[in-house]
Amino acid sequence: MNNEEQSHENKNEGQSGLSRRGFLHGIGGAGAILGMVGSASADEAPKGADGKVIPGFEKTKKDPNAAKGWQPVSDRKVRVGIAGYGLCKFGAAFSYQSHPNVEVVAATDLDPGRCAALAKAVGAKKTYPSCEEMIKDKSIEAIYIATDAPSHARLAIMGLNHGKHVVSAVPAVFGFEAEGQAEELFNAVKKSGMKYQMNETSAFHASCYAKRMQYQAGALGKIIYSEGEYWHDFGAKGLPGYNPKNGKIDLNGWRKALPPMWYPTHAAAYYVSITGGRFTEVSAVGTPGLYPEYNGGDNQHKNPFGTEIAMFKTSEGGISRIGGSWDMKNAHGEQGRVYGEKPHNNAIKGDRPSLPPSVEGGGHGGSHGQLTNNFIESILLDKQPNVNVGDALNMTLGGVIAHKSALKGGEWMKIPQYDL
After folding, report:
1. Are 178 and 17 within 8 A, CB to CB?
2. pTM exceeding 0.85
3. Number of Cβ within a 10 Å radius of residue 235
4. Same domain, yes or no, for 274 and 403?
5. Is 343 helix (H, G, I), strand (E, B) or coil?
6. Same domain, yes or no, for 65 and 191?
């Protein structure tokens, strides 16, 4: 998860299942990456209210085979501006500053101290007091939005309307305004002709990506049943998030009493990012949140649920179960399983793409560097990124509408479809 400003392995089980708890165990990420650029050491990895390193940012060993066979696709450098350097330091955690086809020309954060730290970490010579101001810089080609979740859609739409390619942290749209934001974001992508990517980390976990390769090769046939889970017990203190009321990252920020299905993409990727298919309808239920912040739904998000489970119908005629929880004990991380008409074929190669030697795989199971490289190559090669606007909106809106269903006791609801 991401905290503004910012603030914001894997193994196959049997022939058709996926399981990943690496999100919480041994993934590595920002601490090591920031150490490379002299901004922070591994000892300064971001920590939550419980004093523990935030899941996804534990120190890990560099994959010696990540760059094997890598070939450059261009010698051009894309001029990138980065927004957001809060609790998780996401703005510097995705290796833009070390990618051979990127020049990080500008950085911004609403907090002057964090803005300066981000600029130092990514080597940006120019800073701006806000993302809105940075977007107006005509010399910038692409914007990486690593801010708080409620601001993602608004800033992405503004960037696209100013002729910038946009990559956004998850989710693409947020909360009560999500359905209107989805329409506006889709239209901005379509009208501008620019590239848009959502940085869904599960899409490039080794096991999930391997299943994508299986599916695209036709090995699995249609997916009869899939499931994805995102379990992350916030604890009684909660998890810090950006608080627009005071401009700080605190326990009264946007995460407080957050509906789990407003942050569904780490789980939803186990269907959408594997198949490129769509959720079409959803029925969901929720259980009352265990912690005082839920207060029976009397909170900023009017949300009573700490755990939500959704059943989706898919565009293939299959079923997908997606679960999110902030309060289940002994439940950790993201995992998923996929079952098709045909068995997994071990002869099909499922390795992730090679990375430039200077780019770390990084956090969340080595997905950070993969997402960055995929986005930059989508610009250089004029192709759609792996998590494009259609994927992003289906995963995100699927969750938002699932929460509506849970509030209505499981009523089946249709999900709007957006595809380029």
Report:
1. no
2. yes
3. 15
4. yes
5. coil
6. yes
